[in-house]
Amino acid sequence: MKYFFHLSNTIAIAGMLCFASTASAQNGAVPFENLQSGWHQKTIPVKEGQAKPSIDRLTTAFCEAWRTDVCKDVLLYIKNPQHFKRLYNQDNDAAYDVTIDRANGFAMANDEGGDSPYLFATLWRRSNGHTLLGIHTGKPTDPYINVLLFYDYNPKTRQLVPEKRTSDYLTSKKYGQVEMTWVELPRKGKDVHVSAYGGEPVIEYTFKFNGMDFDEPVIEIQ
Prior knowledge:
Layout: E1 5-6, H1 14-26, H2 32-38, E2 44-45, H3 55-65, H4 69-79, H5 81-88, E3 97-101, E4 106-110, E5 118-125, E6 131-139, E7 145-154, E8 159-162, H6 164-170, E9 180-184, E10 192-197, E11 203-207, E12 218-221
Antiparallel strand pairs: 1-9, 2-8, 3-4, 4-5, 5-6, 6-7, 7-8, 9-10, 10-11, 11-12
Helix pairs in contact: 3-4, 4-5
């Protein structure tokens, strides 16, 4: 499944935004608009923080702080996987899936090409003893919203501190008339892959993790 980060400015219809926010408010979820505009201003405490916390512990902390529709599903799965599976797999065409891969430091909530909100999360162990958490989340229905977020986890303070500079860095590469990008957080390995679309040719950027941050990308033109 691929949804995209739109790099061109789009004027959203006020009534549509209002409807989306109202719908989220009615089911108790945080609107994605709020997450998009405010995530970098909010430090997140991690309950029972550890020196090297697992992907489910950090994802839980994020989702408890930002209870979007998809985060509510992730929290339900982490709390009670069997109940989640009964809820979402009660008919044959249900494909909504949540995966928690502790060994590889990866989490995912995705419906394989449908119109449900999604979340991907990866963690990297930093050479200074901290942990870097990357999250790509959003929704494919109007208004389309895609957000790339990075946090530094400090084991001394037990907090996730926003790293907006990392998010901006990985989505700032442009070539020609690029209109959108897709950021793929790794399940295995440490590289982040960014595909730039909208012009010709398509550009693929590979950002390698150097132990603390990401190096200048290796660029492949397709």
